[in-house]
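Reopening closed ticket. The problem is back. First fold of the pair:
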Amino acid sequence: MDRGTVGSANRGRLQVEVRTEGRSEVVKPAGELDHHTADLLRAPLEEALARGRSRLVIDCSELEFCDSTGLNVLLAARLQADAAGGGVHLAGLLPVVARVLEITGAEAVFTVHESLDAALDD
């Protein structure tokens, strides 16, 4: 592992795109979500919630890895969104990330959709 890229948003370990689509805030993490990159996802989720955007759709179609720290970011966002009358919808999970949710039992607390389109139509 190249230690020079750990936690560096500029080097692309995790990139996060955010856009508003209808009543949803769509957040698309691409790359590896772990201890070193978790804040790159946490910040836009918290910002969306602070702006009153409580329906969060996380497009996971390019999320290649998620460790326990990344999972905790998603769980914290879910609690905050639920408290605000919204929720967190996960879309397009790659098998490796879906497996993490399955092993931990976290899949039971999220609304999971096959695709981004399905999440936006819900």
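Second fold of the pair, where the issue appears:
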Amino acid sequence: MSEVIDHATLTFHVTPGYGVTARDLLGYSQAVRIGDRVETSGQGGWNDDLVVVEDLEQEIVQAFDNVGRTLAEAGATWVDVVHVNSYHKVEPGAEAIGDEHNRVMVREFRNRLGGRAPVWTQTGVTVLGLATMRIEIRVTALVGSAG
């Protein structure tokens, strides 16, 4: 059965700064809102010029900040997040993503989600959109679901 979407409730959102650059260069938006549901594209640990910081911990924190900025553009916050996909650059043949990534990810979840524990899928990959990226995070949020 197909779902009919009222296009009056569908809006695409472009984060000021890096989102405008990504839209102009690559033709995509940072988020789409359909009713109370917000889906983001993958957010990296980049600044507004799409430059990725060198320190992994700072990169992960910046990616979380960028998710927050993108959610805000669509009228949501981290406490509305119900699902997270994270993509972590690993060496070919690696057996796990590793504690260095997980320690920061878990800390940021606890700092930003207001006690909510969303579903989370972690995927190890060997390449991401920019050669310097080591993390990319995309989320689904349901506005107002936090309570």
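Update: turned out to be a display glitch only; the data is intact. The first helix runs from residue 18 to 26. The chain has a mean pLDDT of 92. Please close again.
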